[in-house]
Design a protein that fits this description.
single chain, alpha/beta, Aspartate Aminotransferase, domain 2, 2 domains, 12 helices, globular
Length: 382
């Protein structure tokens, strides 16, 4: 990775493009520009490379290549998963957690949507989830790891509840299907993505969060799941997303996923040490600081805190002037003046939410970055 002229602590919003990913993409912008649906040999070679990229993604998910749909990022994949199922069941309902990304909440709220609360650490309330799923529920969507507070959800426990509901439904009357979708956009750098071990039927991934190109991603769709298409036309992507494939983006995404999954065990250990030091130093330096999110089930790169009595917008401006880039919450809703729905869901009032900061580390983060950030914050708040 190239050395940046600033300290970048907003990797949950966007990651820099890995130079190895760029190198893998480069030929498909120029000499290998062919439409993979064309019949001549040069195009067939591009189609073969696209198939290899699909196979690479499938490998890390423990899936079949035919179950991977390339998309233009996580938002599109989430919309395809939700709309593709819910449009088929006008009398059905969808159950989601209250801290989902807006790209899940917004499409879900177009249907009969039930939102399940979370515990104070951001973990989904499993008892409430079990009660929310009824005979008309056709889809449950619970994110793998939260983009703001970093809490990792117990997907296997969620999958167990869904399985028990399915069995009871089949034993009673057959009935309509019940599917489990997870938004794993923030998880792919650090967590196991094997769909069978997790028990999910659909999974969303985003290249822009894993050192791949923006507007790249994928949706895993189990062979047992039937979706309605989002875009009609030439029938690409299993007839679910017609249009000539963005081969460079697809290959870039697959390359990025392979790189982060191969390195994830070592990267998790490295970041956990930095995260521990970050939290320890913050607690020592900043009076009355509070940590948000689970301290046990948490992404290793996420540090989310509340600094009572201090406006986060002002702090972010001061940090920016000091050459430190951080965030108050999701970049997708940064222009929204309303306090974060995630922080409200874990019980923070508006004042606390507006005094909260998110720091998310990445490949380039080193101990000196943490030291400089702590020193800067101390000068602003003490």
């Amino acid at each position: 990775m190239a050395t940046l002229p600033f300290i970048y602590l907003d990797h949950a919003a966007a990651t820099p493009l890995d130079e190895r990913v760029l190198a893998a993409m480069q030929p498909y912008f120029s000499e290998q520009f062919f439409n993979p649906s064309a019949t001549y040999l040069a195009a067939k070679n591009v189609a073969r490379k696209l198939g290899e990229a699909r196979g690479d993604v499938a490998h890390w998910l423990g899936a079949r290549s035919s179950e991977i749909i390339f998309t233009a990022g996580g938002t599109e994949a989430n919309n395809l998963a939700i709309d593709g199922i819910m449009r088929q069941f006008p009398d059905g309902n969808i159950v989601v957690s209250a801290i989902e990304h807006e790209s899940v909440l917004a499409p879900a709220r177009q249907y009969n949507c039930r939102e399940v609360g979370v515990l104070p650490d951001g973990t989904i309330d499993l008892a409430a989830l079990e009660q929310a799923i009824d005979n008309n529920t056709v889809l449950v969507s619970v994110m793998y790891a939260n983009n703001e507070i970093g809490t990792v959800q117990p997907l296997k426990d969620v999958a167990r509840i869904i399985h028990e509901k399915r069995v009871a439904r089949l034993n009673r009357s057959g009935g309509q299907p019940l599917y489990f979708h997870t938004d794993a956009c923030q998880a792919a750098n650090y967590l196991d993505l094997h769909v069978t071990r997790l028990g999910v039927d659909l999974m969303t991934l985003n290249g822009g969060k894993i050192y791949g190109p923006k507007q790249s991603g994928a949706l895993f769709v189990s062979a047992q799941v039937h979706l309605q298409p989002s875009i009609l036309g030439g029938g690409q992507e299993r007839n679910l997303r017609s249009g000539t494939e963005n081969v460079a983006a697809c290959i870039g995404f697959a390359t990025a996923l392979t790189l982060v999954q191969e390195a994830r065990h070592n990267e998790v250990k490295r970041l956990q040490l930095l995260q521990h030091d970050f939290f320890t130093a913050l607690l020592a330096a900043v009076p009355n600081l509070a940590i948000n999110g689970s301290q046990k089930r948490r992404l290793p790169n996420n540090v989310h805190v509340t600094i009572p009595g201090h406006d986060n917008e002002r702090l972010l401006m001061q940090l920016d002037e000091a050459g430190i880039l951080a965030a108050a919450g999701s970049a997708c809703s940064a222009s929204d003046e309303e306090p974060s729905h995630v922080l409200r869901a874990i019980g923070l009032d508006d004042a606390a939410a507006q005094a909260s900061l998110r720091f998310t580390m990445g490949h380039g983060t080193v101990a000196q970055d943490i030291d400089k950030t702590i020193a800067a914050l101390r000068s602003f708040v003490v």
